[in-house]
TrEMBL record:
This is GntR family transcriptional regulator. Signal peptide: none annotated. Pfam families: GntR. PROSITE patterns: HTH_GNTR. Residues 7-74 form the HTH gntR-type domain.
Length: 192
């Protein structure tokens, strides 16, 4: 698995801000302006504004005024319940599609994401845990097509927003282990 990628400045800004939001370093309600951020980074406003627009689409940032964006609040309990139901339906559908045509390489990649999440949980590294879990699910969701990824990804991110604290737990890791166990079992039964 080649993890060396060349990333645009815009993508780097998105990734840093996303990580800061998901880790709780940027709290709900924190103001983020393109002009201030561009000035801090020594960049023009264009890549910063584009990065902020992408994070608005992901639901991590809200645009409340013309010149200011704010870190989004966690979804309300009722919205969280709805979003969890939609997320689960998308994951179940995509997993069914993935089961039709996956390879040993897919299993290896899923195992690597699982290991990343497991290590991160044991060391209380919330950001690596979130990234490992998101990558695990995104792998089989991507296999079902871009439409499914476009639906699932922003919902999954929104559900990661806590009240300034990272959202992660052992239950999620157990769910990933169940999926991996089922996929390995299916591969073994198909091989025999």
């Amino acid at each position: 698995m080649n993890t060396h990628k060349i990333s645009s400045v815009q993508n780097q800004i998105e990734n840093v801000l996303r990580d800061q939001i998901l880790s709780g370093a940027l709290q709900p309600g924190n103001k983020i302006t393109a002009q201030e951020l561009a000035s801090q980074l020594g960049l023009s406003r264009t890549p910063v504004q584009t990065a902020l627009k992408a994070l608005i689409k992901e639901g991590l940032i809200e645009n409340r005024t013309v010149n200011a964006n704010y870190v989004a609040d966690a979804p309300s309990d009722s919205n969280k319940m709805l979003l969890n139901n939609i997320k689960k339906q998308v994951e179940d559908f995509c997993l069914q599609q993935f089961r039709l045509n996956y390879s040993a390489d897919d299993i290896k990649e899923l195992e690597a994401y699982h290991l990343e999440a497991k290590r991160a949980l044991s060391t209380h590294d919330s950001l690596s845990f979130i990234n490992g879990c998101m990558a695990f699910h995104k792998h089989y969701i991507d296999a079902a097509g871009q439409d499914m990824t476009n639906i699932w990804y922003p919902i999954a991110l929104r559900l990661r927003l806590g009240d300034g604290k990272p959202v992660y737990n052992e239950k999620e890791l157990l769910s990933i282990e169940d999926i991996l166990h089922d996929l390995k079992g299916q591969a073994e039964s198909q091989a025999s």
